[in-house]
């Protein structure tokens, strides 16, 4: 119950635009020696999920949505400096997301947690063309592509991105990980588009990447692009 009350207080402060109250709640947790990772996972992320759900259902005003996402972003920025950093993994991650403010915010939390877990993270954000993402993956020699927080309108572009990566063999050992956004609401979508790993939350994504670093979809498991190529052959 205490956590539920804390979440409600924090949510109310954010949507009302009361920055001082929102900061005071976070300060309370710091004073109680609550780790930064726990604050992100148990306060910031569930609050963002609630804001996103209300926005999708048109149950929150635009101004409340703007208040909350802008203030939450400021708090996430500050929390990054408090995260305990693990030993470096010598692995590069390119992280992209949907173009909306709230999706970028969830992806930023993911980027911060991955960096704290030892990855070298390059956070693109949203709205970048697939060809630029592919070029950057090759330029970096990236080990992981993380797509966290995709909105329904951008799913076809994510499909094309993964399909193209499989077709042309850029970074052949690349692991593709997806999560958040529409992947949390459409069961089986992550597998359908050919992702190697998937997760619902930033902390879960960090965990599955740590525990299954070698998992890859084999050719027969990848449904993305297969029907398209079959139709092309039939048409010929």
Explain the overall architecture:
By secondary structure, the chain is an alpha/beta fold. It has 2 domains: 2-80, Orthogonal Bundle (Methyltransferase, Methionine Synthase (B12-binding Domains), Chain A, domain 1), CATH 1.10.1240; 92-221, Cobalamin-binding domain (Rossmann fold, 3-Layer(aba) Sandwich). Helices cover 56% and strands 10% of the residues. α1 (2-15) crosses α4 (62-80) and α6 packs across α7 (155-168). The longest helix is centred in the first third of the chain and has 21 residues, at 36-56. It is globular and about 50 Å long. The N and C termini lie far apart (63 Å).
Write the layout of secondary structure elements.
Layout: H1 2-15, H2 19-31, H3 36-56, H4 62-80, E1 92-96, H5 101-116, E2 120-125, H6 130-140, E3 144-148, H7 155-168, E4 175-179, H8 189-192, E5 197-199, H9 202-211, H10 226-235
Parallel strand pairs: 1-2, 1-3, 3-4, 4-5
């Amino acid at each position: 119950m205490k956590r539920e009350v804390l979440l409600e207080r924090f949510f109310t402060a954010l949507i009302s635009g009361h920055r001082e109250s929102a900061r005071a709640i976070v300060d309370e947790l710091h004073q109680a020696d609550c780790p930064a990772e726990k604050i992100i996972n148990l306060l910031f992320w569930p609050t963002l999920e609630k804001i996103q759900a209300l926005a999708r259902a048109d149950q929150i005003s635009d101004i409340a949505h703007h208040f909350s996402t802008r203030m939450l972003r400021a708090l996430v920025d500050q929390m990054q400096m408090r995260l305990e950093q693990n030993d470096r993994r010598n692995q590069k991650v390119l992280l992209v997301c949907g173009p909306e403010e709230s999706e970028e915010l969830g992806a930023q939390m993911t980027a911060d947690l991955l960096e704290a877990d030892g990855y070298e993270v390059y956070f693109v954000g949203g709205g970048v063309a697939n060809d630029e993402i592919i070029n950057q993956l090759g330029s970096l020699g990236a080990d992981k592509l993380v797509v966290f927080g995709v909105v329904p309108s951008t799913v076809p572009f994510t499909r094309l991105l993964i399909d193209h990566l499989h077709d042309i063999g850029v970074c052949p050992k690349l692991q593709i990980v997806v999560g958040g956004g529409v992947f949390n609401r459409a069961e089986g979508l992550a597998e359908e588009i050919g992702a190697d790993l998937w997760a619902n939350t930033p902390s879960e994504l960090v965990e599955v990447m740590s525990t299954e670093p070698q998992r890859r979809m084999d050719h027969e498991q990848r449904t993305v692009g297969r029907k398209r190529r079959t139709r092309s052959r039939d048409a010929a």
